[in-house]
Design a protein that fits this description.
The structure is a single chain. This protein has 54 residues and is of the alpha+beta class. Helix content is 33%, strand content 30%. A two-stranded antiparallel ribbon has the order 1-2. The longest helix has 14 residues.
Amino acid sequence: MAHSTLLRLVLCKLLGIPLARYRQVFPALHNGALTELRLRDGQASLLRLNAPVR
């Protein structure tokens, strides 16, 4: 659970979402799932969230 909270907070920070909203915006991250970000010119874009690993 602690890692999930940390990851959700980092996602909020990178995407410019208020940290207080992390539970509403990202209710849960699944164990072993793939989350993919694009970092370009100081901007972050969320490409995938909780995608199953095949």
